[in-house]
Amino acid sequence: MALKGRALYDFRSENKEEISIQQDEDLVIFSETSLDGWLQGQNSRGETGLFPASYVEIIRSGPSSSPAGSPSTQVSLYDRSNVANLSRSAEGSGFFPNQGSFEEDDDDDWDDWDDGCTVVEEPRAGELGTNGHPPLNLSYPGAYPSQHMAFRPKAALERQDSLASAKRGSVVGRNLNRFSCFVRSGVEAFILGDVPMMAKIAETYSIEMGPRGPQWKASPHPFSCSVEDPTKQTKFKGIKSYISYKLTPTHIGSPVYRRYKHFDWLYNRLLHKFTVISVPHLPEKQATGRFEEDFIEKRKRRLILWMDHMTSHPVLSQYEGFQHFLSCLDAKQWKMGKRRAEKDEMVGASFLLTFQIPTEHQDLQDVEDRVDTFKAFSKKMDDSVLQLSTVASELVRKHVGGFRKEFQKLGNAFQAISHAFQMDPPFSSEALNSAISHTGRTYEAVGEMFAEQPKNDLFQMLDMLSLYQGLLSNFPDIIHLQKGAFAKVKESQRMSDEGRMVQDEADGIRRRCRVVGFALQAEMNHFHQRRELDFKHMMQSYLRQQILFYQRVGQQLERALRMYDSL
């Protein structure tokens, strides 16, 4: 039942899920039950969305009203902020994609490779972070809720900053918008020092200074991996069917066979772990026609591109879960490796602890300017990639439809001329009639050549453009992480200048912002390196195929022309 409410404070929305409210504004509240400190309702302007529960009071018919989602006693503004700052779970917010799939062969409850429960580590009671808040722990597998969860107490961990910071009177505030990727990814918690320092970090990823700035240190053991032989397989005595792909990594040599759902599982682990890296998107799913030849061929081409980007990335290629995906042959070992990846603690915010950054000083304003330049570039590139993709798709449609029909019409018209010339035998020239008829058939063949040509050039171009559309779509959120970090640095420095924060804490926030900044710049650098290689290859391949195509068309026309030479 909808309830009447009144805004206690002003609140300005920061995304499309929220609505702005003003102090003393009358509201309609759809439910008194709050979702992690947020209510859904309607403001006086008819806008519907979310707003902080502690910023409103419910108007009851009784003698008193109380703030929504809280006891009847009034709470302080600081408490209201804390209530509003509670984050959604990762699953509920939709930050991590669903591991499931609407493909028929991907909804079988992982029957052949997952039969255990997920163990989730629970933070110790009373453990506080740098800013006096409970530490945000996005590193445990609870971000993917399971029906069979077991909890175990978490071992004592050293924090990034002293626990004494919890006793300070003034702390850097948390973002009010708990749905932003800066919060959901855990980067805010990392910047504020609320991510536990592990006693031992088994994996490290190095960033070094290159000629164009920070770059990922090259993998010491580079490799590639082929994707071949998509084959239809069955299980449960033919009840279920699926496509199996043969993967052969060059550094291992022996092939493994993987289904699309295995790729999908790996992709979700990559998204969960690598907070500041643009993970290439998998080829799209399809509910029907999954076993049609054209779809299988298209998916194979795009998996090849996906695999090429994975193996060429200095960080993603070293990921233990990826190596397990490429090498494991034994079913029991596969399950163990899968569970190990799902229990990986160095994910999300904790992943940032694995970086080793250069000692060179970088002015944060220079870094912010560099990020702004890349932001403008990526937006322009995204628009141009979309434009080229639209034009190429339209050209494919014309090749398959319009061009083929027009050349067929022209060929039929030539054939009609040839038939007409045969109507008066005494004046009929058999050689001329034959040459014109052959010309008609040639143009019909040219129409078929146009219809088949996109498989040789435009399809490959669209595959590459689709890959880059996915990569570019990742960067707004990644850049938002850096922007959020910059904002925390500026806020902490202002508080330090005003004497409301000790300089050591402000320096810690700046130091952790440098980690995020170096990682983003390294990812930007890698993106540009791959972009130059990929688009060079794409344009060369397209032009070569176009030249070969028109050479074949020219050869057909030259043969038709020679038939007139002997007349």
UniProtKB/TrEMBL annotation:
Similarity-based family: Belongs to the sorting nexin family.
Top-level taxon of the source organism: Eukaryota
GO CC annotation: cytoplasmic vesicle membrane; plasma membrane
Membrane topology qualifier: Peripheral membrane protein
Domain SH3: 1-61
PX domain location: 223-333
Record's subcellular location: Cytoplasmic vesicle membrane
Name of the protein described by the UniProt record: Sorting nexin
GO biological process: cleavage furrow formation; endocytosis; endosomal transport; intracellular protein transport; mitotic cytokinesis; plasma membrane tubulation
Keywords: Cell cycle, Cell division, Cytoplasmic vesicle, Endocytosis, Membrane, Mitosis, Protein transport, SH3 domain, Transport
